[in-house]
Amino acid sequence: MEQQKKYFFAVDLGATSGRTIIGNITDGKFDLEEVTRFPNNLIEQGGHYYWDIYALYFEIIRGLREVAKRGLEITSIGIDTWGVDFVFIGDDGAILRNPRAYRDPVTFDAMDDYLKHVISKKEVYDITGIQFLNFNSIFQLYAMKREGNTALKNAQKILFVPDALSWMLTGNEVCEYTIASTSQLLDPRTKLLDERLLQSLGLTRSKFGKMVNPGTVIGVLTDEVQRLTGLGQVPVIAVAGHDTGSAVAAVPAKDEKFAYLSSGTWSLMGIETKDAIISDLSYERNFTNEGGIEGTTRFLKNICGMWLYERCRLEWPEEVRQLSHPELQGQAMTVEPFRSIINPDDQAFAAPVSMIQAIQKYCRDTNQPVPETPAEICRCIFDSLALRYRQVFQWMQEFAPFKLETLHIIGGGSLNKFLNQFTANSTGATVLAGPQECTAIGNIMMQAKAARVVNDIWQMRAIIANSIELVEYKPQDKAAWDAAFDKYLSIVNKE
Hints:
Elements: E1 6-13, E2 17-26, E3 29-39, E4 42-45, E5 48-51, H1 53-69, E6 73-80, E7 86-89, H2 110-117, H3 121-128, H4 137-147, H5 150-153, E8 157-160, H6 161-170, E9 174-176, H7 177-180, E10 186-187, E11 192-193, H8 195-200, E12 210-212, E13 216-220, H9 223-229, E14 235-238, H10 243-249, E15 258-263, E16 266-273, H11 280-284, E17 288-291, E18 297-304, H12 307-315, H13 318-321, H14 325-332, H15 355-365, H16 374-399, E19 406-410, H17 417-427, E20 430-433, H18 438-450, H19 457-467, E21 471-473, H20 478-492
Parallel strand pairs: 1-6, 6-14, 9-12, 15-19, 19-20
Antiparallel strand pairs: 1-2, 2-3, 4-5, 7-8, 10-11, 13-14, 15-16, 16-18, 17-18, 20-21
Helix pairs in contact: 10-18, 12-16, 14-16, 16-17, 16-20
């Protein structure tokens, strides 16, 4: 790499692993390189689950040391992570115990208890427009208050995970908008934390950092971090701190008339809008409004993704597991289509002991042929996911203030050519697949905007489109997919 280039340093943390990445933008194109990769270990102790915030900080320092060793000039640093979780800071400026993880069992009954005894479900949705998940920050905080959590009692500040790591690097406390929007404490109309919801938890606005938008400079590395890394006063930028926010920022769309499908273990299908969409219908269909870059809202719905396939793959015999994904999926393409159809979002598939048995029982209970072989089960999953995508895509079109002309598939699932083609066939939309590394790209592009290397979201997206090869899938076999969708609706509507 050429030493005179300027680089942006992205920290991309997921719930199982993390990595540090450097990127640069030259001649209208971007380039990425992974610097370090490391596990993000869930710690179980005393009946609770925690994240090791110090281990994550250490890995960030290790990545920064590596780029300093190479003599690279780092323009800025940006951090994105999963949503909802947070860190408590004491009045002495120290972290009050490792943060709880969203998988912690203390929240299992907290949501129902809160909605029954504190503020009703409809009222909470009308304020926040956020879908109901038991691990949302509001219910985590309620569960901690209920149990008399000492860290909560003594917290001077509550910082969401990416903001806490930025604070560890700079000493400055902020509350970045996109990550705050996952908490179910934020009103997307005012773009502020809601006082009534905070009061219901015994909290005040002063407990949280200053609200900032993506692209804001949080501060520069502290003297301590400069000494540890060998770097100078490098600024840390508030990117879209929620990893999905960064991913959607990297959708290489030409205009606003698109939907996106962030495809992986879980799928997120949504649109980008100027304002939140909060209505009785969005409440009924459990759509969510999360913060996006440049003041946009990510109006989306969670859909079960490749979770079904991944869980089945773990159960199949060794000789099946040794097949590559394209080999196994290719075998599935030789099986009769639409023979067995499931609703991927049925509760039966949330966490079954055996995913194969759960799928077979669903088919048996709905009087369908029971898939037996790995190829039959794989075909059932792919057909069903594509049909579920169609249902949500149609709902999305009802809400969208514009005609949806293109569906962009981003993330790891963008490499799945069979499911991509099925999704085009099912939805009737032109599908454009890529990029795979969307979260890191969005993180780096927001840093580039802060550095005035790019002007706005559309220039960012033009650079991304210019840097990668998008794969286009056109709809096929309309009559067959229309008939299959009728079958799918007849099955799921009986649930």
